[in-house]
Amino acid sequence: MASIPLDLITDILIRLPVKQLLCFRCVSQLWRSLIDDPDFIQLHLRHSIDSNTNQTLILKNSHLHAAHLPSLAAFSKLDYPLMSYNHRIQILGSCNGLLCIRNIVEDMAIWNPFTRKHQVLPSVSSCNVDFYGFGHDRLTDDYKVVKINQFGKTGSEVKVFSLKRNRWRKIQDIPCQFSFPEANGVFAGGALHWVLTRKVQRPVENVIVALDLVAENYREVPQPEYKDKGFHLDVGVLGGCLCAVANYGCRRVDLWMMKDYGVKDSWSKLFSVASEEVTGSLRFVKPLAFSRSGNQVLMEHDYVNLFWHDLNKKEKADRVRVPGMPLSYETEICLQSLVSLNVNRKQHNEEDGTDIKKMDEFLSEGFKLVL
């Protein structure tokens, strides 16, 4: 064992799922130190993202159920760390193998379901209508939770929790000319995204608003050149890319992908799903993940069905039926990772402001949200 170069051991280990790596920590002190090393954790994470491997599909109903992609051989229950209170648990977001979860009494935690480590967040004021988002600040390697409190029809308050700082703080509110979101944020391209409505626009115009987690400012994301009008707009993420889901009144759904984040011309229509291709209505369709080959896309349909869409044949492939699946559910894709919650909680100084300014200057003026 000692004769095997460490680089070769590393190259082999980064290809393995987390469950096996946790077992291999017992092989020797050397392997334990290697697998626990932050550089190895980042290498494993990057390999999983680049190779489209080590993905897990999570279904949520009264419990959480998980199955490995792409095989989806069987679902097993996940034991989450918060008190469940009638099994009401909500997944607020997923990023780099971490889940942000909340229970009915608004306890919140950031949780790695594969290492079974978690951290409960400090309590924060709430109201009747709250929306959330969860993502990664790549500049400071920090994980952030965004909470939007809506007060009546006109007032709002936006707070951000930093895992490094271990505290909440208030940031700029959503610009007043926009409505409040109707769903939790979608993380892609270093930002959280919501579909909002421009209040002063007639007819009503849906816009995609992004909150950059580095600069913590808002901007409007350019949308595709839709050929048809009169659709309900949702956003999603597929293969790390932002998606626009245009639902034409249950007649069909078009899925668009922004391949180069922030570049309007990089939008392309990936495929359409017609109502006759599915059983039931097309009230809700959500993109989840690519197959290993990249030729199929796993989709959620109306909270009761999963199916693969074949990109080559331009048609719906087989419906997914897996032992242990609940009858109805919400879905989340979670990457298996060793990402730790034991971040370096150093005090941030004036360099933070300098970094944010640099990132803000990097963004093109045409991509910023004009307040």
Write the layout of secondary structure elements.
Elements: H1 6-13, H2 18-24, H3 29-36, H4 38-51, E1 55-60, E2 64-68, E3 76-78, E4 89-95, E5 98-103, E6 108-112, E7 117-120, E8 129-137, E9 142-151, E10 155-162, E11 167-171, E12 186-188, E13 191-198, E14 205-212, E15 218-221, E16 232-238, E17 241-247, E18 252-258, E19 267-274, E20 285-290, E21 296-301, E22 305-310, E23 315-319, E24 330-335, H5 350-362
Which structural traits does this protein have?
40% strand; 371 residues; 5 helices; mainly beta; four-stranded antiparallel sheet
Description of the molecule:
There is one protein chain. The chain has 371 residues and is mainly beta. It is built from five helices and 24 strands. Strand 9 and strand 10 form a beta hairpin. The radius of gyration is 21 Å and the shape is globular.
Head-to-tail CA distance between termini: 61 Å
What is the subunit organization of this protein?
Answer: single chain
State mean pLDDT (0 to 100 scale). 87
In percent, how helical is the residue content?
A: 10-25%
Q: Compute the CA-based radius of gyration.
A: 21 Å
Neighbour order of strands in the largest sheet = 3-2-1-24
Q: Please indicate the percent range of residues in DSSP E strands (runs of 2 or more).
A: 35-45%
Tell me the overall shape. globular
Instruction: Tell me the total number of β-strands.
Output: 24
Main beta sheet, described? 4 strands, antiparallel
Element order, helices and strands?
Answer: HHHHEEEEEEEEEEEEEEEEEEEEEEEEH
User: Which spans have pLDDT < 50 for at least 5 consecutive residues?
Assistant: 346-368
Question: Count of helices?
Answer: 5
Structural class: mainly beta
